[in-house]
Every structure is written in structure tokens, then in C-alpha cells.
Amino acid sequence: MLFLAPVPKKLTYTDGTFTVKPGTALKLLTGEGYEPTDLSSAAKRIKMPLDLALTDTVKVPASLTIKADMNADIPCEGYTLSVKPTGITINASTPQGAFYGACTLAQIYDQCGDTIPCMEIEDAPDMGVRGVMLDVSRDKVPTMETLKEIIDKLASMKINQFQMYMEHTFKYLNHPTVWKNASPVSAEEILELQDYCEERFVELVPNQNSFGHMERWLKFDEYRPLADSPNGGESFWGHFDDPFSLCPIDPKAKEFINSLFDELLPCFKSDLFNVGCDETKELGYEGSRSKNLCDQVGTGRVYIDYIKNLHKEVTARGKRMMFWGDIIIKYPELIPEIPEDAIVLEWGYDAKHPFAEHCPKFAETGLDFYVCPGTSNWCSIAGRTTNMIENIKNAAKVGLANGTLGMLNTSWGDRGHQDPLPVTWPGFMVGAMASWNAEKVENVPETLSACVFGDNTGKTGKVICDMGDAHLVFNNTIGNSSVPWHLVFNPSEHSVKYVTAETLNDAEAYMKDIDVRIAELDCDEKLMKEITYVSALLKLAVKCGRAFLAGKTKDDLKADYDEIKKRHREVWLLRNRPGGLEDSVNWFTTYK
Topology of domain 10-123, per CATH? Predict the structure, then answer.
């Protein structure tokens, strides 16, 4: 059985097999509108030992033919793939469709080797936009090698948009104080990633939060005066001590944001721009500079006026604005005032998030919107596999029913981003599957193993998915996080009340079984270090639970915490830059 990500819309097996034979040709053919070189990206996906020919006049018989013709009756991102005993043919109406056909064939070849069963595939996506957003601001900035690996694997699963969520991790040349210890992404690196994405039909979209979540800037004296609550105050999350959001009524704050736009946006070819503007927690609350105006005209009015001002600035720079919809959804009467070409990002990360309630409110006004579920990796240690799958499937189903432009699947790094990259891959893959073919999100562990980790036994994917559901053994769930994470990082708030001796025994037995299966894996050293680190964190959670039930504290587990911090540093540097590492390590000691 083949495990493909995403699952093709229509796959029919036919009689016979095709055997790959070295010395025959891979032919790139084009009809009206294209040149053979337009198919170079598709050709690079083919791993078979074939000789490349860019013309049909070559006498060597073709084992594989890739053809793009703009007059072909195939959707622009769709393709057909035909495997017969005499050869393989990929047809498309665009080079992008041909690339996706080649990606499917590459997955088939990885699993079948030189003997491929005959089949007919007809395929095209449900959603026009199939995006991923990766948080590179909560301490963890991947190396360029890692970013390229992520983009390449996402492209192989037909993802066509990629964003890096930024707060302070772009190398703004006028603001070195903010990023000097963060190992930021430079303009030169953005240009390099731009070319890398373009070759893989991935749109690289700029992303800079522009209202809330600016604490990494506002903690410095030179930026603190721009804050809505420079000395902290009250919020919808309770009291806070440090500035968090920009002041929406301060002209200098607006000038500051415009200066960031002027430096960031020229690096990107995309005509889209995500300005964020989520979780403006102190807007209108006691201690905020905006409180008086919010009391006079309404908090929603102050928010939407700020959004409309941002829209003017973004439009003036030739971009189309997108922003998170969590604040404006609280003021549905103001939704009609959202600029008509803005894209609203409807986000929610738990399985029962009310996409079905929120999406129609945007759709009925004619606004374009994305559904934005998440990979459930953050504040979880090992992920939350079942929650993630249901969250993404729900977003896709509701989004399609309400005419969404697409999906932006999000991976966050809240509170230290302790989870290594393999924890995020199940969510990345499920998002790719659901946004291409929402009806066929199935065989997740086996598909993850084969298509992401190159393990056709299914064992690697099963271990990672099962570790992602370890939190369920504690017989309790916490929204947007997990009990094991709280046991390790935040015992003062979530510890004894969520565990019993019995659930801890169950969790210990669960992890013993996982460890037996980890020992059987055949994977590279880097991946093994990451998997065993996640296992160690989950086992530390059990140990913390036992200690807290006995009235002990983190101080009584100092040796355990010292060891896990050592492993955290080692695993972090396998794929990520050093900036932000010590900030992440600090979360093990002090919950912030």
C-alpha cells in the first residue's frame, strides 16, 4: 500500500508494473506557452537513474515523459500521472502542476523502488492557498540549512506559501539593539530563501507583527515610550508587568512601524504582507494610554481605526494586507469596515475551535479569509497529535464550506520553543493533506514515516505520533498546552490537581513502551537525538508529578533539570542558531 502526502483525488491501480531501467530518457516536453526549461523544477524531483532530454527528437526511448501544455484540460495546479508497463507520463497545464506530479511520483518511487505498480492518477487541490507559518521569534531561529530543508519537504507535499513569523528576528539595520543576541534572519538570507522558494513554487510572504506581541522591542528604554502600557497594567489575561503592545494612538509608534515596513518589504517579491495584530491584550485596560479613547469611542473602534491606518501604509508599499482575526471577531458590527481587499486570518488551535461560527461572519461580508489551525507543538513537549488532526480537519472542512482562499497552518514557539522539529512535522504534513484533499486525511503515522522521515516500516512516524498523544494518558487536557509541559515548566499553576499516582503509573508504562520502540528505530543520529530528548522530557514530567505529589519542588530535582538543560542545548544546536538558546533554557528554571 502506498502512503502519499497529500492523498491524490483519484488513484486507480491497473494491471502490471513498470521497471525503471538506467540508460533510458526523462523527456521534458511542452506545448503552447512554455519551454522545456520551465519544467526543470519538476525534473529535479525525479530520483530515477534516467538521462535528461529536452526534446522528443532524441532516439532513446523515454521511461518518463513530463509535459506541460497551457491548452490541456487540467486545473492550473493539477496533473495526471499514468504508469504503464511501457513508461510513465505526467501531464499538466502549467509547470507548477507538472512539479506536483513529479512530487507524487517521487514519493511513489521512494516506497516502491525500481518496480512501480501501474496506476492512473488525476489530481488537483481543494484550496488555492496551502500555507505554513513558522514562528522564528520565540527564541528559536533555524539555520539556513534547516529552513531550506523545511521548505523543500513542504513543497514536496504541495505547500505553496511559507511565512516566518517575526517580532524582532529580522536584521533591521537601524535597530541592532533588539536583534543583536537573536541570530536574526538577514536581508541577504531572505533573498536567498526567495530564490529557493520560487524554484519550488512556494510564495515567500513577509510577516511582521505590528501591534501586539512587541515586548521584545518595548523592553528597551529607547522603544518603551511607544508602548500602550509602558509600565505594565491590566489586560484580558490579568495583570502584567512589562510592556506588550504598541500604543495605537501614538503617531511615533506609527512612524516606527512604517520604518520597519520600509526596510523589510523590499526583500520580498510576494504582493502579500501579514501584519499580525493579534492578542492586543491591554488595549483599553487600566494602565494603557489608549484607555481614555477606548472608553469614549469603544475599544473595537480604536482597533479597527489602527487596522485601517496600517492598511493604507501596506497598500502604499504595493502589498495586500493580511491580519489575524481574533480581535475584530469580538466586534462583529465593525467587520464591514475591514478594507475590502484585506485578508482576515481566522485562527484557532484546539479541536473544537468555533471555525463554524467565525468563518461565516467574514464570508457574508465578502471578505477574503484563510483558516489558520495549528500544529499543536508549542507548550506540549511532544505535540498533541489527536487534537492537531481534528483541529486541522475541522478548519479545512469549515473553510471549504465558507469559500476560504486557503489555509495557513501555524507552528508557534510560545514559552521557549522546547520541542524539536520532528514534533512539528505531523502537523505540517496533516495541514498539507487537508488543504489539498480534505476528505482524505488518513494513515497519518505511516504516511509521516514514509514521506517525511524516509522510513517505509512506519515505525518512526508511529513513535512520534504516539509521543504526541502521551499527554492523554494523564486523563486530562489543558487548552493550547499539555499536562506534561506544565509539570516540567509551570508546576506552580498546573501540577498536582491534574495528576494522581495512578495516572503517573500509566504514563510511566506508556513511556516504557515508547522507549522499547525507539530502540528499534533505524534513523539518522540527529533524528534519534531529537526523539530520545522528547522521550526524556516526558519521563521528567512523570518524575516531576511524583515529586510534586510528595510535596517537593523543582529545587529537589535540580540534578534532573541540569541534565535536561544540557540535552536541550545539544538538540537545539542540531538545527538552529545559537541566538535565543539561553532564553529558552531559562524557561526550565523560571516560568515567565
Answer: Chitobiase; domain 2 (3.30.379)
